[in-house]
Specification:
Layout: H1 3-30, H2 34-40, H3 45-53, H4 72-94, H5 101-107, H6 110-121, E1 126-130, E2 146-150, E3 153-164, E4 169-177, E5 187-193, E6 199-203, E7 215-225, E8 230-231, H7 237-273, E9 275-276, E10 279-280, H8 285-313, H9 319-344, H10 355-365, H11 372-384
Parallel strand pairs: 1-4
Antiparallel strand pairs: 2-3, 3-7, 4-5, 5-8, 6-7, 9-10
Helix pairs in contact: 1-4, 4-7, 4-8, 5-7, 7-8, 7-9, 7-10, 8-9, 9-10, 9-11
Bound molecules: flavin-adenine dinucleotide.
Length: 393
């Protein structure tokens, strides 16, 4: 056996061990608590600290920047593994590699990576990404948040909506335009420390799903920023946003597969236990159909998700692949969670069983990281070679 083969075997063994470790953590430390903290609308800090100690936030961030240096396929499997127990923890685990960290890794300078990316990947701090605005989240190029130059720095004003991590973020990666008439070419990306004067957060309460995450409005009132706040070239912010959201789509797809798998696992277990008409409901063919449809759809979604991970690993932009994976996986997650509630009957709407939470969260998956209607549009646009008046995400 060659040294190269041994190396590959060692890497594969390490990856499998990590996926097992994350799954064991989910079963032992997350599953017993998720119902309680979902109801309380707050992620337990001690759980996040344990995850940081275990290196769970490192993802694809290279080892030299404090990460685990995973390939995208392993990253996707790790995110699925935690999401079988709570995909909201999958959000936090994916952010350093995707929505928050991807732009820093690709466009940040050494000082920015040292200050923000390293502690993010090591789980010592958290960040947030501010793309969506009160007016629209789909029309990224139409951002109303604006900035002007001020000496060597910038002054930024505007508002973002539906921004996650407002309770724990130490900084925000966000986007503003210098001139709206320039569309995508007028947008720049900024890193804003959370304690900068002029920054206000207004969390929303009582969301339908994703309840443990603190999501809300991020308001900028004449926020003064130094030159070091600019991420990437001035005017190149749209590329930073797309880098983040395309990796974010892989993470959402992986989380949706995890949630769908949790719906199937709960359904199989319940169907074997629940006795109606003197028989376990697992013996009824219509229940069996639901179970087999779920299993086939989940496998297809997982394959599509892994295909998009491989495309990113190959260094491709993978816009169509990540759109297909995000759209399909979130649609089948919503179907799986709906059928899981049906199989549980009245118990399906009780907080005593996990499927009610899965059902509420599954719907939200079809909206975040680009609404599925937008993904249908993007996929068709790539196939037909048409373009829109405006860039959408
Ligand atoms: C729990 C939660 C957490 C979130 N976290 C973040 C975050 O951390 N950072 C962030 O930036 N955003 C975040 N978002 C926002 C999310 O990314 C947006 O909701 C999403 O991109 C859709 O934008 P919108 O809600 O403004 O919908 P809109 O842009 O108002 O669109 C509404 C609907 O119109 C339809 N539509 C719009 N345009 C088209 C079109 N061209 N063709 C066909 N149909 C169309 C779609 O059905 C769409 O769902 C979060 C949202 C939620 C619910």
């Amino acid at each position: 056996m060659s040294a190269e083969t041994l190396d590959i075997e060692q890497v594969e063994a390490d990856e499998a061990a990590l996926i097992r470790l994350v799954g064991d953590f989910g079963r032992k430390s997350v599953a017993p608590r998720v119902r309680e903290y979902d109801a309380a609308e707050s992620l337990p800090r001690d759980l996040l600290a344990q995850m940081g100690d275990l290196g769970f936030f490192g993802g694809i961030v290279p080892v030299e920047w404090g990460g685990l240096g995973l390939d995208y396929l392993t990253f996707s499997r790790v995110i699925e593994a935690i999401s079988r127990y709570d995909h909201c923890l999958g959000v936090l685990m994916s952010m350093p590699s995707a929505l928050v960290g991807a732009g820093l890794l690709q466009f940040g300078d050494t000082a920015q990576k040292e200050r923000w990316l390293r502690p993010l990947a090591e789980g010592r701090i958290f960040g947030a990404a501010g793309v969506t605005e009160p007016r629209s989240g789909s029309d990224v190029a139409g951002t109303d948040t604006h900035y002007r130059r001020d000496g060597d720095g910038f002054v930024l004003s505007g508002a973002k909506a539906w921004i996650t991590n407002l309770d724990i973020a130490s900084f925000y990666v966000t986007f503003a335009t210098s001139d709206k008439s320039k569309g995508a070419h007028g947008i720049s990306a900024f890193i804003i420390p959370a304690d900068t004067p002029g920054v206000e957060v207004r969390p929303y309460k009582d969301k339908l799903g994703f309840r443990p995450l603190c999501t809300g409005e991020l308001v900028f009132k004449d926020v003064r920023l130094g030159r070091d706040a600019l991420l990437g070239e001035e005017g190149a912010g749209y590329a930073v946003a797309m880098t983040a959201v395309e990796r974010g789509r892989l993470a959402v797809a992986s989380r949706a597969v995890g949630l769908a798998q949790a719906s199937l696992d709960a359904s199989v277990s319940y169907a074997k236990d629940r006795v109606v008409f003197s028989r376990p409901i697992a013996e009824f063919q219509m229940v069996q159909k639901k179970i087999s449809d779920m299993a086939v759809n989940i496998k297809a979604a997982r394959l599509l998700t892994e295909d998009s991970a491989r495309a990113l690993q190959a260094g491709r932009r993978a816009r169509t692949e990540t759109s297909m994976a995000k759209m399909f996986a979130s649609d089948i997650a919503q179907q799986a969670a709906t059928e899981a509630v049906q199989i549980h009957g009245a118990n399906g709407v009780s907080p005593e069983f996990p499927v009610a939470r899965l059902y509420r969260d599954a719907k939200v998956f079809q909206i975040v990281e680009g609404a599925n209607d937008i993904h249908r549009l993007l996929i068709a646009r790539d196939l037909l070679g048409t373009s829109s008046r405006r860039a959408a995400r």
